[in-house]
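Subject: Predicted fold for DUF6114 domain-containing protein, 144 residues

User T.R. writes:
Posting the sequence so we have a shared reference for the thread.
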Amino acid sequence: MSLSSTQSGDGAVSETEASMTGDETITFGEWRATRPFWGALALIAGGLVIAWPSLQFLLQTSMLQSQSVVSLGVVVGALLVFLGVGVLTRPEYSTAIGLAGLVLATISFPVAFGGLLVGMVVASVGSILCFAWTPADENVPVAE
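User M.O. replies:
I've generated the structure tokens; pasting them so everyone works from the same file.
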């Protein structure tokens, strides 16, 4: 099965062919409006703030001397970063990811002191933003 070309003499491609090939481009603002961008950004930032002190402690001491709880701080922070990237790529799971992020942010308090409490608060805010996010209505124009 072959598709016939609908190009005009000047090499322009018709609108229907462009939509079939996926040549439509969207701006960053349009892409950002279709997902919980600020919640994901806060999740990533909170995860980095939680993981950083634990990672620095692990790098300064030998692995045999460090506590296993300290390494859990790095794991929790990395999982929060992973959830932030995950909600950017799959916004339809924002409710579940927001809930998981809130649980991990709460767990970070006894594990890594919540990234000096700042990381826990930032990750919690990001989780709540992801949990509360709903897709924009198609009929409502997006403000530019």
